[in-house]
Amino acid sequence: MRGWWREIGGLVLPVACAGCGTARTSLCEECAHVLYGAWPGRVRPSPEPVGLPAVYAAAPYEDAVRAVLLAHKERGALGLAAPLGKALAGAVRAAAPPGTGAGPLLLVPVPSAPRAVAARGHDAGRRLALAAAGELRRVGRAAQVLPVLRQRRVVADQAGLDASRRRANLSGALEVAVGGARLLGTGRIVLVDDVVTTGASLAEAARAVRAARGTGTGGERSGAARRTALVAAVVAASSASFEINRN
Predict the structure, then answer these.
(1) pLDDT at 70
(2) Distances in Å between the alpha carbon of 193 and those of 22, 102, 120, 227?
């Protein structure tokens, strides 16, 4: 019901760009270009957590991009899922170009804590994954969302935790649901999330997927397996973590 009222509210309340505040548009052309108009890039958090797959991001997590992500995730601006999904789809294409693996792209969202989803009134991560899969299909890539990851124990709020504490907080926290391992073998897996900061969430998600598939952190690095190695895509990351900006 909460999400339904937010959808209706967007039709009758004054609209302003979520990125810069420009009137009469939910996302202006300039902010849209910042979000998904540039090429996605490979990002590497520093320090890089053990087991982190190759991660690609569509844009730096700053200014308009940060505002748009927060408007969607925390303030329920559900109409922003489409442009955010377009940005995420671009990062997915960079992470898994055509010809890298058989079968459809399987977008596996990193799950939010159930209490966070309940407080927000919607599952932002899954919504973005669905929007990205739709955009990928629109441009001719077979893609589907596979929400097989779940939390196996309660974790603390990540806000305010440094990299080492985030890793400790999330260590062993995720697992693949019963029956999920079989589904993971039907295509090219791409872990997806809205933002990468320290990389702890994606590294834990990768550990859970590898455990379900029976591979270790180094089990994908040789021979033909390189073409189907686990990868990840996000909407945004720190500008300092983009490889192009690193020394």
Answers:
(1) 96
(2) 27, 23, 16, 22
Do residues 87 and 35 lie in contact, with contact meaning Cβ atoms separated by under 8 Å?
A: yes
Which pTM does this prediction carry? 0.86
- Please enumerate in sequence order all residues whose Cβ is within 8 A of that of 211, keeping only pairs 6 or more positions apart, or say none: 175, 176
Which residue type does 89 have?
A
Instruction: Round to whole Å and give the CA distance between 25 and 16.
Output: 5
Contact between 233 and 94 (Cβ < 8 Å): yes
Res 8: pLDDT: 47
DSSP-derived secondary structure for 160-172 = T--HHHHHHHHTT
Please check whether residue 198 is in contact with residue 237, taking contact to mean a CB–CB distance below 8 angstroms.
Answer: no
Predicted confidence (pLDDT) per residue in 161-207, tens digit: 555 666 555 666 799 999 999 999 999 999 999 999 999 999 999 99
Nearest CA to 183 out of 108, 125, 109, 124 is that of: 108
Low-confidence ranges of the chain (pLDDT < 70): 1-14, 153-172, 216-228, 246-247
Terminal-residue alpha carbon distance, the chain? 49
3-state secondary structure of 69: helix
Give me the pLDDT at residue 190, please: 98
Structure tokens at 107: 């977008």
